[in-house]
Specification:
With about 150 residues, the chain is an all-alpha fold. It is about 70% helix and about 0% strand. It is built from 5 helices and no strands. The protein is elongated, with a radius of gyration of 28 Å.
């Protein structure tokens, strides 16, 4: 058997998987593309093991380890994707820039920015704890926003 046939097939599989990783937005399809790339490596390992006529069959042994690692990777990857899908309702990779809740986090950041802007506008006033005001009849910006 010529070594060129499985090597060309493995290169095509690897390039297809690489395209899938770089171009796809769905997390499940990205995981499938990573599996294609790992299978291309497995094909190369077995092809070179047969071509070299290794008596220990180390290429096939490495292929078994790669299959075990791929199974663990896909199990953990699918668990993460399902957890993200349950929380966010989408498995689109472009929308998942972080795992924090964006609506609540953005509201807290906006509130903190508003408080720091009001503190910068009145530098002569000292920040007081909430609920304790020296002015009995007036309310401050910090009390009004909370």
């Amino acid at each position: 058997m010529h070594l060129a046939y499985p090597a060309v097939l493995a290169a095509l599989l690897f390039c297809t998987g690489l395209y899938g990783v770089l171009a796809r937005r769905n997390a499940i399809l990205v995981l499938m593309s990573v599996e294609l790339m790992l299978n291309a490596v497995n094909l190369n390992l077995v092809a070179f093991d047969v071509w070299l006529r290794d008596t220990l069959h180390s290429g096939q042994a490495l292929t078994l380890f790669t299959i075990a690692i791929a199974a663990a990777e896909i199990g953990i990857g699918l668990a993460i994707v399902l957890a993200v899908y349950r929380n966010r309702g989408s498995s689109d990779i472009d929308r998942l820039r972080d795992t924090a809740e964006t609506d609540e986090a953005d509201a807290e950041i906006d509130a903190a920015d508003a408080e720091s802007d009001s503190a910068d506008a009145e530098p002569h006033r000292r920040a007081e704890p909430a609920g304790k005001s020296t002015n009995a009849g007036t309310t401050t910006n910090a009390e009004a926003t909370s």
